[in-house]
Amino acid sequence: MGKRIGASTRDLIITNLVAIVAGLVLSGFLLLFLDINPIQVYSSAIKTLFTDRYMAAEVFLKATPFIFTALAFAFTYKANLFNIGAQGQFYLGSVAAVSVSLLLDGKIPTAILLVVVFAATLLAGGLMGAGIGFLKARYNANEFLTSMMSTYVALAFMNYLLRTVLKETKGEYPQTDALSEAAWIPRIVPGTRLHLGFVIAVITAILIWVFLYKTPLGFRIRAIGSNARAGELAGINSRRIFVIAFLISGALAGAAGFTEVNGVQRMLIQDFNPDLGSAGIGIAILANANPIGIIFASILFGAISVIGTMMGRMPGINVPPSIVSIIQGSVMLFVIAAYYVRAMIGIRRDKKRLKREEA
Amino acid sequence: MREEIKGNWSEIEIRNVSKYFARVVANKDVNFTIRKGEVLALLGENGAGKSTIMKILYGLYQADEGSILFDGKEERIANPKDAMKFGIGMIQQHFSLVYAHTVTENVILGAMRGVIPYAKAKEEVESLASRYGFDVDADALVGDLDVGVQQKVEIIKALFKQTTLLIMDEPTAVLTPQEADQLMEFVRQFVADGHAVVFITHKMKEVMEVADRIIVMRDGRISGDLRKEDTNEAELSRLMIGRDIVAPAKVDFEGSDHERSGLVVKNLSLAQGKVKLLDDISFHLRPGEVLGIAGVSGNGQEELCETICGIRAFDSGSVVLDGVDLSELSLRERIEQGVGYVPVDRHRDAMIGSMSLAENIYLKFSTDGDWNRRGLIDTNNLRQKTLESIEDFDIRAPGPDAPAGNLSGGNQQKLILSREMRLAKKLLILNQPTRGLDLGAINNIHSTVLKARAEGLPVLLISTELSEIFALSDRIAVMYKGRFMGIFSPRELNTEHIGLLMAGIVPDDMSHVAGEEIRAEVV
Amino acid sequence: MNVAVGILARALTMSTPLLYGSLSEVVAERSGMMVTAIEGIFLIGAWGGFVGTYLWGSALYGILLAMGLGMVIAAIYAFVTVTMRQHQVVTGTALNILVAGLCTYFQRVLFGIPTSPLKIDRLPQLPVPLLSEIPVLGEVFFNQNILTYIMYAIIPIIYFVLYRTSAGLAIRSTGENPVASDVAGINVNFVRYATVLFSGLMGGVAGAFYSIGFLGMFTAGIIGGRGWIAFAICFLGNWHPFGAVVGTLVFGLAESISIYMQSLGSAGFLPNEFFIALPYILTIVLTVSRRSFKVPAKLGIPYVKEGG
Amino acid sequence: DKSKDSGEKPDESAPAGDKAAADYKIVLILPGPINDQSWNATNYAGLVACNEQLGTNIEYVENVKSSDYESTFREYAERKYDLVMAAGTQFDEPAAAVAPNYPDTTFCVVNGSKADGNNVAPIFPKEYEASYLASVIAGNVSENGNFATIGGFPNEPMEKLLSVYEKHAVEIATERGIADAKATRAYANSWDDVALGKQMAAQMIDNGADTLFVYANEVGLGSIEAAKEKGAKFIGFSSDQNSVAPETVVASVVFDFETFYVWAVDQYVKGTLSGNKVHEAGIKEGIFKPVYGPDISDEVKTAVETAIDDYKAGKTDLSKYFDE
Ligand SMILES: Nc1ncnc2c1ncn2[C@@H]1O[C@H](COP(=O)(O)OP(=O)(O)OP(=O)(O)O)[C@@H](O)[C@H]1O
Ligand SMILES: Nc1ncnc2c1ncn2[C@@H]1O[C@H](COP(=O)(O)OP(=O)(O)OP(=O)(O)O)[C@@H](O)[C@H]1O
Ligand SMILES: [Mg+2]
Ligand SMILES: [Mg+2]
Fold first, then answer.
1. Which of A321, A326, A327, A299 is nearest to A309 (CA)?
2. What architecture (CATH level 2) is domain C9-124+144-289?
């Protein structure tokens, strides 16, 4: 038995590595169409990643919101629900972050302010999530659709606020005033942009793991997710689980608003981080929806995005930015395929053993 | 348009076929012959590999080794389409019907090409049905039909494709004895027309009744290939099981001297639209007593269990357990009160295959303070309790952390029973607890039921297996269309009586018995 | 009057690609396959339509290329979800990201960095003689381009195939109970590949409608979530071709009215953003208020034939 | 002029003017892909013009996301770039945040309007001057005096330029004797939804407009299609849109970003692109150029010429057209 677990962990690592490399190779191959030498750009970008502290820190900076949106998707996924509206919940979280920060900064100490802002983002995202969960619980509304549509509504709502009450005092552009330094999340590595939000994200991921696997409520969420009817017959109220799971999921996505607004952007502007939601889905899948795995998968996606950025800045080469989507999409696709390959390897191994025993 | 069929072979030989699933050898070196004009019975315990070998013949699975020969000529059957070309039809163990479609649509599925002449197809379906005396409405939605009728739809489906070899995988499992007799009649008639039938079952009686030849399987291998005239039930049983089984002994119920009053159900009714799912049911189940409920499945047994457990609400009547009115309690509160329930479909209703044994035990205790510590699951304690269950119930499993889905059906059932026994302080409800299990597991579960009874627990036992009902029950009720046909002492009943009652007919010689018994029950 | 006719005509025009998309989604979902790559298929269709027309000078080539590329994406999707039995939502997400990158990337590979848009001739408006003279209706229904007219034909054809032929029965049964199909000698994977590829073909045309039929150019934001709208309409239309038609028209109309309100500028009494969000709010409301959905029983569930 | 500027504000970052143009490390930061066929492509063309005409070696980085504005500025400043340009007002804040730490680098936001710092030197095309020229054409070519405008998103420069256009066009139409001349404005709330641009414009034409003016990047491309289909007139803006639909786009007012960029970078090389100041360019600097289609009469062309001359001579005050 122990041996088999060893083998399957090895399969997991090897197949996923192969998948990631395959994604990079495929994307690199496309660079040849623009007469760009993929080996050269990859190696120089990766080298910078290991030598330039600022760029290395950027990887973790990028990973921070990914961790939150990936957790958001993974959390409902555990309850066999689909929250594909993390983008919208993130927007509402951002609106909450910027509003509360602007309202309170300078009035209360930074530490308290940040706690309040963090709570506000959890609440904003969480309420939106809970609304989707409620529609599912009460009206059996397909959460896949409602969460998808809700993102567009949240976006319109954010744009409305940016154009009206949240508009900068200068009144020129649909964006808010910049937050004062008192509302910034402290940086943790001097000379880089990396801020405490990353640590918060990692801790959150660990807490979510503990919650899912070690607490009764987490257990009930997984139970409903694995076999809703059996869970219900065991006395678990699945409707309540829908609402709770979506509430937490939404809160997690909202938290990304906190790290992005108070940690990175320090203001809210239109068309802000438009790909966090879909990247979160990819990362969650890459990590098999495991909260701890999400930390690493997010760092990988952070690295892909930083590598893409660096490749786009190489003087005289300027790899087109679309390469980032291509790398992300193909890595995701290969990782998905790796699930199948692993299952096949497992079956084949079992069968071989069986035939050997039989003979 | 219809497909051409070339079903004029006279024998099929299955030669040295082996089939490996990832962790199971389903078939190993299987050899036998199927002949036209013969009923071949395939007998074996659960997991013996009966379905698998026939699915290989039907093209649903591919054999890892071996070959299939038609009149000595090897042929490849890559999919059911190939099988159909040879006139092979198969009725699956679990029906393969589309519930949302009509009978006609189900019958013609895969049998016609191009634009479908619905009116003509319907006529054909009706004429086939009447030829074999089946009462089936061609326009009905299959999902609305009784299982017995669904069975007939499956047969018509096969006949429509001009089947010359009909494989029936445990066809009687859901039928009343009378319906089963009708089916046997059909089988004889069909074979008399020069066709062949393979009849899969684990019921010895049916084998002796209908088979010409019997193949016995055990652990994926052939353990016997016999003519019916040359064998008997004892020999078959030995070939099938390979070891001796001692049935648990049972003492007669002597009334209870417990202070608790048990379960009192009065005038319980539940309707869905115009259909009465439960029709004025009353009984009193005393502590330490087993009340067996016989009947064809789908006659309200599941609804009865579920209303008592709180999974569904009922329309009128009352359910009182030890003086507590259950209708005021939620499902969860009833579990906390000590109502244990083993539902009929364990995969759907009772366990979570992807979770571990321990988590499956915990499933019904997640709100119980004794199982949690400081807001977290008390894992040490849970592990301990799971090990106890494994020990006490003889669950064959790698350990408490193995996924429950990897256990065999019997062991899964023992796991569930161990959990329900743990929580059943006041009442245990069992809905077909041994369905599809092999004799070893059945025996184990029967012992557990009798132990619960001895400990003074009231036990409501639902089963379609009459032998089980008779072996365990202190009293027997027969359910038909949501109604109790009466509550009887096992001594008052014989199989023929019960068969008629299950079909909704009160036998002339016992109508007064039934009436008295019911009246006596209403407290 | 003129304004109303315009609103209706535009609603119908904008409904055309949505209907191609939602009808194809109906067919695929009836076989159990949600084509969640639809957004990407639309996009690559728009791109292929543009490229084919631009490079080879004829809209016909554009449409053919759009169909071909749509089917390529659909084939990848089917391979991963049917053969590899992986999750449909997740696979679609990956493909949509990938396609977005690929279209932008190859647009640059092929056309470099033009400052003003590369234009192609739009499909002409083809007023149907006589019919287009009918007041209001004529202008709305019979002064459209060829893709819209083809759509008129496709609606009854899809209905007929789905409900009157053996192929349709096989598709519907496969979505309800693949085991029944399998046992009846129908190749479940074949059916699912076929419907997904059909979806790719139709989705490709839908995408091409935006570039060739409507705008005469390609930009990266050309689809902007409209694939998802088609996807949603399939749900709202209860997985029925006629339901999809009604759903599409309702949606097209909502969008058209929303644009009308926005076009009034400051005259609108509600904020612009409300009208922008209106179609999405409407979808949510419909999802909630719709009492009984007839979801194909095995929608989104891979068919495992032999298991381990 | 040069000495006067630097005399007033001693400016360390302003280059001494002794290096060759090719030796300056200059980068242009773009918020979108350079092949977007609109804003980014236009700016990119300015870069190419500088490299060709001034001999500079300007690099670029494209598609920079808002969360990376600041880090991108910082990165190039760290790498000791002399001039960091960025295309779009949205770069104002991040430039202001980064600039104080890197006094040796000059930050130049194109379309920027925030100039706090010795090394912050935004350049700003007075777009409302361009829309003023457009309004001269529109006011004269409209038949019914019903003008429609569409903006990408509402913001102050956008509102200003649309106001100037609308009010002046209506004014001319009224002078021409169209009593009920009017203008309607809508916002697409998008820069890139082409299909939306087309639908919206079609709706506005149905509502009665006969002359369209759209400033919303790709959205405008869709609007041209609508005008073409419905036979309305379209005044092209920012780029030469006449070629897109020669019959429909009767004229364009082109932002000559090549001239604009060369003008700005040349100032930098000469040492006159000083900080603490918004370097505005407009009609006077010759960065707005009318391009006429075949249907524009000579009278209209003359009217535009007169408007340009009057403006240069300081005879025109556009602030009266601004909304308060
Ligand atoms: N698709 C499958 N994947 C993996 N294992 C399977 C599969 N189908 C059957 N098995 C296993 O193969 C063995 C033989 O199964 P089979 O269904 O043929 O038994 P059976 O004799 O029909 O039993 P029953 O009486 O329960 O129907 C069992 O151990 C079963 O678990
Ligand atoms: N169709 C299938 N696909 C995958 N695994 C299967 C399948 N059928 C059975 N198995 C697996 O085979 C193993 C043995 O179960 P098996 O079917 O032999 O139990 P059983 O005693 O026949 O009970 P049941 O009453 O459920 O048929 C389990 O791990 C089960 O999950
Ligand atoms: Mg079995
Ligand atoms: Mg079987």
1. A321
2. Orthogonal Bundle (1.10)
